[in-house]
Amino acid sequence: YSSTGKSMNLTNFQESQLLASENHFDDIAFSNTDSTLVFISASAGIYRYSTIDSSANLIYSSNNPIPTLLLYDSTLFAFNNLHQLIYCANVNDSSFNYSIRTYPGSSSSIHALKSTSDELVITCGDSVFISYDDGIHWQSFSSGLPSGIEWKSLEQDPYTPGLLFIAGGTN
Which strands sit side by side in the sheet containing 127-131, from one edge to the other? Predict the structure, then answer.
């Protein structure tokens, strides 16, 4: 979908460029600061796709699945199944560097949110964690939440900064 909410089909050339060596796709994140950029996690790693020239460049190579991408301004948070957070603060720029951080929890089922008040919040199985420094340090954010719940979704109220909604259920 484009930023206007309209569906855009890829041309055969665009599709062949993007799908050439991939056997699966895990997640997609759209830039909210550059409407021409899309980030896609796939079997080879993370691609930055440009809608201007239909180019798909592998910007981070990985043999491990990266099931969750979160893009906030020009910062990319990518969570892999090894409990690593791949962090890049200027991913929209042509030159950028990644740093690898770890995230807590025992599940590889991750849902992430960067709040408007600048906290990074993740659900990891039946736990919720918060970071005030982009994933360098984490603390439990599960106090008061029911136990035994697999947290499946995390959203922020768009009208009330700091109000988060977490949804889940038992298996």
Answer: 110-114, 120-124, 127-131, 139-140
